[in-house]
Amino acid sequence: MDAEGRLSVGGCLLSELAHRFGTPLYVLDELSLRSSCRAYREALERHYPGPALALYASKANSSLAITALVASEGLGLDAVSAGELLTAIEGGMPPERIVLHGNNKSSEELALALQHGVTVVVDNWRDVELLTELARGRPGPVPLMLRFTPGIECHTHEYIRTGHLDSKFGFDPDQLEEVLTHLATCRWAQVRGLHAHIGSQIFELEPHRDLAGVLADALQLARRLGHNVTDLNVGGGLGIRYVESDDPPSIDSWVQVVAEAVAAACRERELELPRLLCEPGRSLVAPAGVTLYELGSRKQIPGFSTYLAVDGGMSDNPRPITYQSSYTACLADRPGAAAVETVTLAGKHCESGDVLLRELPLPASKPGDVLVVLATGAYNASMGSNYNRIPRPATVLVGDGRAELVQRRERPDELLRYDVLPERLRSVG
Ligand code: LLP
């Protein structure tokens, strides 16, 4: 906050950023992102007695700039598509620190991973089939990890729960022995790691502790079947604070629980300590991001709601309409002013459900004021769309009073770029 009580991030006044770069605008704080990367790295060093690496789950927010930042902090990266993989490689992430996930990888995506020496996380038998074909005639083995469903329930939105047995991701635990036995006969395959992920936006630590035992059992099985498995990947999932009442554990506590549980589970089974991998997404980037909007129209319904509309909505933040997620928001230039009304913050899309926030207490405001929604750095830009043919916002990276454009705003005319109008449909008058 500056002397006049206006909000700034990374030494940049938010209302000034809005005027300079336009709205809606994603703002990403470099220091916050770097600090979270360091928190993971240092916690792993502190709490795990063996080697360890955090891989940034780039589905949370994939861009060249974010890749370059997390790579410079020594992290690796998890990609789930050719697009995320290309972004990682172009952004300077060393391929040996990248893993490729996906429950239905295309042959092209797998070929790209092989071409760059990226580790493939085998999710199902189709992956094995495709890799067998692609590996034919290639020199050297293909580095693999094997993903399975750990059968662990946790409390989060059902759409983002992945660890329970009825999930589309990974091998069923009952299939693990069969697939490991098969891969032991494949000369091209080098099974280096095992992976399981239980879900996202999780506040509990217990499921992560349970996961360690399940992974250690799988490690024991894989080594017994002759695989030189050196990596255990526990996935991501640590939740963040979106609203005051959210109370997630710190990165340090999460890592401590995971690291100690993995080390203990391996000790109990007399297993040589594997390298510990984890894949945080949200907890790395969400707190580093805010979205700026300009306030526009107002609709007051006596006895009901007051709708205040912003110049974006579900196309730049689909989380409220998809998961009923809550956020915190305030006016950029009067964050501390006393509230005079409670509003429903509506988006501008043609969809009644396009509401970003309900019951938002706000001080007096007028059209043109800049509104800030906090903690939007994860799963906003990356899940955005062009619904209603609305262009995607720009992203600026801020730090030390500097603001740099790292993703430029789309223009409406660019949205027509991929349309093809057949000659016979061209208007004749
Ligand atoms: N690893 C795997 C295999 C994953 O599937 C995910 C998230 C992560 C790591 C990263 O999880 P995180 O640390 O971000 O919780 N769109 C939803 C979240 C979907 C998460 C999908 N997988 C949302 O907006 O809440």
Can you characterise this structure?
The structure is a single chain. With 429 residues, this protein is α/β, with parallel strands linked by helices. The protein folds into two domains: 8-23 and 288-409, Lyase, Ornithine Decarboxylase, Chain A, domain 1; 30-280, TIM Barrel, CATH 3.20.20. 28% of the residues lie in helices and 23% in strands. The protein is built from eleven helices and 19 strands. The strands form three sheets. Strands 3, 12, 13, 14, 15, 16, 17, 18 and 19 form a nine-stranded mixed sheet that branches. Helix 2 (30-47) runs parallel beside helix 9 (251-268). The longest helix is centred in the middle third of the chain and has 19 residues, at 206-224. The mean pLDDT is 96. The structure holds ligand LLP. Ligand LLP binds at residues 57, 59-60, 78, 101, 160, 162, 197, 200-201, 235-238, 279-283, 319, 323, 379, 383.
| H/E series | EEHEHEHEHEHEHEHEHEHEHEEHEEEEEE
What percent strand?
15-25%
Poorly predicted regions: none
Distance between the termini: 58 Å
Q: Might you state the CATH topology name of the largest domain?
A: TIM Barrel
Helix content: 25-40%
Overall shape: globular
Q: Tell me the name of the CATH class of the largest domain.
A: Alpha Beta
Nearest-angstrom radius of gyration? 23 Å
Defining traits:
globular, 429 residues, single chain, Lyase, Ornithine Decarboxylase, Chain A, domain 1, TIM Barrel, binds ligand LLP, alpha/beta
